[in-house]
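Self-study notes.
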Amino acid sequence: MISLSKEETASRFGVEKAIEHFPSHLTAQEEKYVKTVLQYMDTAYSPTRNTGGKSVAHLCAPSNVFEARSTFPTAHTAEEYAESHSHVMSALKDLHIISFQVVNVKENLVSLRYEATGSHIGEPHNGIEPTGKRGRWSGAGNFVMDEETGLIGHWWKDWDKMQMWKQLGWVRGKDEEVEFV
């Protein structure tokens, strides 16, 4: 494993985010798959470039599948996730990925873990007026790339939603306290 600075990642993949742990040797096809996934993530997590599903459609295979039942239960495709995420970003106007902690690829499977941050300085979120609070959280994704098109065919997402929501002041529980069970 090697690390890539944000400049190296920008030169290699067109995405200006550091990667802390990255394979030292990739096939040409694996390199293309990583580029597609990183460009998707960079767009989906940009408050200015993510204008909904159409902003990432060119990176998604037809009939792709997105799964994150506990956090985005109504999103079933990578485009639908980008659409839903654009609404979250209307509340978190400065949301962005800080870095990719790890990006790994083997054949047509790309896995990554990232750290993101954002402040509730935009629109209300689920009826909660802007809190001005900042959060920092991590998330992970496993992408199966469609071998015919080279685009995202399936994406499983996992992230620490509760930690993020608590930091942003979005958790409303009994007496404003919520404990992890």
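Second protein, same conventions, sequence then structure:
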Amino acid sequence: MTSTPLTLPPPSSPLTPHVRSQINTALLTSNSIPKIQAALLHECQASGFITALRARCLELLRSGECASYGELMGVVMQEVRGDNVGVIGGDSGGGSSGGGIKENGVNGTGTGKKEEGRLRVPKRVVEEGVGVVKSALEGCVVFGEETGS
């Protein structure tokens, strides 16, 4: 880790390439990457996201909608990112909540299950990921002031 903590700008400010590089170095130096990966994998499995992802990939391949790995990755990444698609909102409990359709599909709003042919990263996976990364960066990074919290 670095000897002097890196100070991050407020969340509304973009990170410079230099700051990104310093964050990556801090995470690599502290051996935090495997911990972050393990926490995200656990939450993705526990929420059913991995199962939904596999099912969606099979659906896309069997229907002929995707014929190559590149096409499959493109469609799946587009769905997960919420590019130009609606999602059904819901809690992270894994049940079928009757949430309404959100116009600006954002990760962290769904259950992780395939909802009308769309994939969403569950809210609890996003929250756990943020928590693990923040915890890994404590001690080597000083976070800028948060507004509205």
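Instructor comment on the second fold: Residues 76 and 126 are 18 Å apart (CA to CA).
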